[in-house]
TrEMBL record:
This is Glycerophosphoryl diester phosphodiesterase membrane domain-containing protein. The keyword Transmembrane helix applies. The chain crosses the membrane at residues 38-60, 80-100, 131-151, 157-173, 193-223, 243-272. Keywords: Membrane, Transmembrane, Transmembrane helix.
Amino acid sequence: MQTENKFIEFKKQRELGEILSDSFVFIRNEFKPFFGTILKIVGPYILAMLISMGFYMYTVGDIINLGNIGNASISTYSPFIMLLAVAAMMFSSIAAYVLAQGTVLHYIKSYIEHNGKTDYDEIRSGVYGSFWSLIGLGILVGLSVIVGIFFCIIPGIYLAVPLSISFAILVFLKKDAMESYQYSFTLIKENWWITFATLFVIYIIVAIASYAFSLPSIIYMWIKMGVFSGEMDAENMNVFNDPIYLFLNILSSLVQFLMNIIFLVATSLIFFNLNEKKNFTGTFERIENLGKSSEE
């Protein structure tokens, strides 16, 4: 894939504002090939996630359908169907998010290695090759943050900051899951607060944008329930079986999923910023390239 846009140097130190601006510049410059690659690799899993999400919501609607209380003959609820819906949504969501994270990281890796160009086959191979390592690391990170939050929330926040870059460490430094987990604390040492501030700002931006896209489904739900008219109807309290609400909610979930891509690009830039401060990898590479150019 060719790109005519200006090459963005990832391996350099950046301030908070530069991380934010370069994240959006990279996505804007690489929009078509970037999201095209994501859709080719992750698209089927995103579709499975959205279908299973709709199936789950429809099943939940059967449980809370107030109109069916006391009338089991018209209820379609089944414990087996509910378990199937939960399992389908859980596994499809995990697959979609892990593959999306892997695709973003391997796309950036290919972009860096080929000076602004990317190789789809290389990206796809890298994504599937690191799938189980990313799953394992995700379990480690998830359990650590959950346990940390259980102990007064603050430990969970403290752990979440360094562990957010552990996935980038796994892909860019080619470490295994445990090494990536451990090295994230080494890399972020003395830079925890600025990393926290950067992640917090990015999270707020993504959260606000995601909320804006979820408003149509929320407004429709309020209208359906009679919130604006003041005429609350028990039979309309359940909107989960409403096709329009399901469509709006699934569309909102898709947008939120894609908005998460911004966060993934930003964490990659944060990783390179921290790695450059500690190891000067990009600086040494540029000096080496200058030496080669002068020899030629």
